[in-house]
Amino acid sequence: MTHLTIAMAKGRTADKALTFFEKAGIRFSDFHDKSRKLVIYDDENKVKLIFVKAVDVPTYVEKGAADIGIVGKDTIMEDPVDVYELLDLGIGKCQLAVAGFPDKQFPSSTLLTVASKYPGVTKAYFDSKGIRIETIKLNGSIELAPLIGMSDVIVDIVESGKTLKENGLVVLEEIADVSARLIVNKASYATRTNQIQQFISDLKAVLE
Amino acid sequence: MVLNEVYPERMLSDNEKFERIIKTINKRFTTYGYKRIKTSAFEQYDLYSKVKSSINQNEMIKVIDHTGQVLVLRPDVTIPITRELAQNFPDLSSELRYFYVQEVFRQPIDRNDSIERTQAGIEYFCESSAEADAEVIALGCHLMKDLGFNDIKIELGHAGFFNELVRGLPLTPLQIDQLKSLIQAKNVVEIGPFLKSLEIKDEVREVIERIPFLYGNPADVIERTKGIALTEKIQDTLDYLMDIFSILKLYGLEQYIVMDLGLINHMGYYSGVIFQGYVEKFGKPVLMGGRYDGLGAEFGTALPAIGFACEIESLVKATESREVTSRLPIDIKITYADSRLEQAISIANELRERNYSVLSFSERKEHADLRQSVYSICLEKESNSFLYKGKNVQFSNLKELLELLVGGLEPK
């Protein structure tokens, strides 16, 4: 049987996922924090782990370069791909939300400006509410945008709300709950059903 | 240097694969009694805007003719064939089997993708029956085997399953679309909360929540549906799928079939069984199809039919790692001394008449084409020689040459 290829990004999510794998009996002795290896195999040589950038995980899985991917729901929402989304790993729980100054009224005559790292999610959310907006794509320090008057509100990940609070912002609307999901390539699921279902049920047993 | 050699090789090998795949497809479709037809490259825009939920209007490539009429470059083949038949043969007394291999044009979402794709497919106009439907699926399987794939999986579902479940539910079209994408993604995590936000009876909700798990070995899947409340109509569709599966067993194709009750095709005209095929190491379906009994009604007649199509470009990619053919592309290469030009031409002509592929070069240009050939012929000033697998034999006339070609160099 060939390897099951799993794509994920290095970092907190990967560390947590690896402890789940270990509990499920899949060990990566080769792996340690300082390792720069981008490809590692488990001790039984059944699973191959590849480390890619988080935003690329859905692409790797959709194209079949990886059978399985572990990635945040925010990334999947921003770049929707044609894959199966079979499991919530419950890692990195947070929220995608609209945030801004409390009690501020927006005149309906002008276009609402929204700064976000997630222009796709932002557009889809406001479209569904029938509100026309101008989106400003930023790559970090999103909270700064309303402070300096570049945007009216922001759409961002909110974990504890601490950053928002320190900058005088509050959550105005919640868009979606976010956590790490397990996604699966559709062709892999069809051609290697048993192997993948087994992997998922092992993992599920650990989560419960 | 690298570019000069490698790039044309790769392009050539892709083209060769392309041709070989089409040849295989032609042959296989013909053995099941299908006849090849063609449809026009330009179609009326209205034809496609008329058939609801088929091809997204933004995907169509539009053209305007000199009278100002809007045409589209053929985005699909099934619809024009059905229209053609519906208009010319209002009552079809006999079954019809057609196949096509032609380009379809759609604006891709990803700009790097090509607008033009080559589709090969069949349309079988016949009453719905498990035998007919199973035969079409068996043909799809057979074709994938012909193309050298081993790890084939055909997912089998039914368009009536989802449609029947949501029929009568108080859902807006947007909510139905959301539900469809959740089911297509087998999104177990979010389907429950989504359904809870809607006003749906508990027993229906429970069935919809179970859909993502209704995947796998057909017998197991049916077993898993036992505990849930199903309407009579849904039970009938499940029985029908099992009928198809038992016939596929007779074809010996059991191991290639998985049942997927969460299968939903984006082409809205499917009404009965739907299926799609995957092969190893290729992330997308290589084959898609289903039964569309209602499409003829859009053009005023009842025209039950089933069909499937595959995209040749995808098949070429899916065979990427495979050897195309062990056969060398050129049969015979002739090199001649300039004074022997006449004989070279006459030998080349004679051999081409006999269906050998032949290249001929003057000695001076011997290296103009680097492709290898199975046999080589040298016409020198005084003598003629025939080379095959490193052996060299002299010959004096065409008759001797032909004997050498037929018998190789085996001693008589």
Structural commentary:
Chain A is an alpha/beta fold and 208 residues long. Chain A folds into two domains: 4-92 and 179-207, Periplasmic binding protein-like II (D-Maltodextrin-Binding Protein, domain 2); 94-177, 3-Layer(aba) Sandwich (D-Maltodextrin-Binding Protein, domain 2), CATH 3.40.190. Chain A has eight helices and eleven strands. The model of chain A has no long low-confidence stretch (mean pLDDT 90). The longest helix of chain B is centred in the N-terminal third of the chain and has 30 residues, at 2-31. The two termini of chain B are 46 Å apart. The relative contact order of chain B is 0.11. Chain A binds chain B through residues 62-65, 82-88, 181, 185-191, 193, 197, and chain B through 151, 153, 155, 184-190, 212, 215-216, 258, 278-285.
Question: What's the short version?
Answer:
The complex is a heterodimer of chains A (208) and B (412). Chain A is an alpha/beta fold and 208 residues long.
List the helices and strands and how they pair.
The complex is a heterodimer of chains A (208) and B (412).
Chain A: E1 4-8, H1 12-23, E2 39-41, E3 47-51, H2 57-62, E4 68-72, H3 73-78, E5 84-88, E6 94-100, E7 112-116, H4 119-128, E8 133-137, H5 144-147, E9 153-158, H6 162-166, E10 170-178, E11 180-184, H7 186-191, H8 193-207
Parallel strand pairs in A: 1-3, 1-4, 7-8, 7-9
Antiparallel strand pairs in A: 2-3, 4-11, 5-11, 6-9, 6-10
Chain B: H1 2-31, E1 35-36, E2 42-44, H2 45-50, E3 62-64, E4 70-73, H3 78-88, E5 96-105, E6 116-125, H4 130-146, E7 152-158, H5 159-166, H6 173-184, H7 188-196, H8 202-210, E8 215-216, H9 218-225, H10 232-250, E9 257-260, E10 273-279, E11 287-291, E12 305-311, H11 312-318, E13 330-336, H12 341-353, E14 358-362, E15 373-379, E16 384-388, E17 391-394, H13 398-407
Parallel strand pairs in B: 1-5, 7-9, 13-14, 13-15
Antiparallel strand pairs in B: 2-4, 3-4, 5-6, 6-12, 7-10, 8-9, 10-11, 11-12, 15-16, 16-17
Helix pairs in contact in B: 1-4, 1-11, 4-10, 5-10
